């Protein structure tokens, strides 16, 4: 049986907005195994973004525990959290976040540049990652010369470049048409088959139901279901 790469127990997170207290997460527990392909679905304001920040080590819970690959996240300092993000998690976002003056290859290389890797080695790795997403022929194009789907492929290649075990995708198809969205999901399915653990945060039911597992977040609480048992109307 695959080992647990993420273990979350009774996670809570509260924010103050003005004079109001908002319980963004209310006692969430979740176990994710190595090689899972998990979709987290829910409407706006359900706690999806807060939960994504927790999984991605971008924020800390008020209470509860979070173990990532055996390490308890709450015990780590900011530098240790940054190292975990760099080594363990590849981030993919709806808006791509490519640097406009860098080519596709240079954008993919960037995380390796921050690690101090020599240019020849990082270029070779970046080229391999662009090949994985079917975009090596566009390596020297700027983001403005690429379609939205191509830009997202570059963003996926950038997420892959450090060979992280986990890919965390926040609405990765949100800015794309349905045909291009399916192409991106197919790439993620292929990466999952190669061993990457995939976690997609989405409000799109068509995307969610292609994952191996689906959990629904509503009012800061988590419910796990099979696709057969969630009506599309339950996801806004």
Automatic annotation (TrEMBL):
It comes from the Bacteria. Keywords: ATP-binding, Nucleotide-binding, Transport. GO terms for cellular component: membrane protein complex. It holds the Pfam family ABC_tran. GO terms for molecular function: ATP binding; transmembrane transporter activity. InterPro entries: AAA+_ATPase, ABC_transporter-like_ATP-bd, ABC_transporter-like_CS, ABC_transpr_LolD-like, MacB-like_ATP-bd, P-loop_NTPase. Residues 6-235 form the ABC transporter domain. This is ABC transporter ATP-binding protein.
């Amino acid at each position: 049986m695959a080992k647990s790469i993420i273990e979350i127990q009774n996670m809570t997170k509260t924010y103050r907005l003005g004079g109001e207290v908002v319980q963004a997460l209310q006692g969430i527990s979740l176990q994710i195994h190595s090689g899972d392909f998990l979709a987290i679905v829910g409407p706006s304001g359900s706690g999806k973004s807060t939960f994504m920040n927790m999984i991605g080590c971008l924020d800390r819970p008020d209470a509860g525990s979070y173990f990532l690959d055996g390490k308890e996240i709450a015990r780590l300092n900011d530098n240790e959290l940054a190292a975990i993000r760099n080594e363990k998690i590849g981030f993919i976002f709806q808006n791509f976040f490519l640097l406009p003056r860098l080519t596709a290859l240079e954008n993919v290389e960037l995380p390796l540049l921050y690690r101090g890797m020599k240019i020849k080695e990082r270029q070779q790795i970046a080229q391999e990652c662009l090949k994985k997403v079917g975009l090596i022929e566009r390596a020297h194009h700027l983001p403005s010369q690429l379609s939205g789907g191509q830009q997202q492929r570059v963003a996926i290649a950038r997420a892959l470049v450090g060979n992280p075990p986990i890919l965390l995708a926040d609405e990765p198809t949100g800015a794309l048409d349905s045909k291009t969205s399916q192409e991106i999901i197919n790439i993620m399915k292929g990466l999952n088959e190669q061993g990457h653990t995939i976690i997609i945060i989405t409000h799109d039911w068509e995307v969610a139901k292609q994952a191996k597992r689906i959990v629904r977040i509503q009012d800061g609480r988590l419910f796990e279901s099979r696709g057969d048992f969630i009506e599309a109307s339950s996801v806004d």
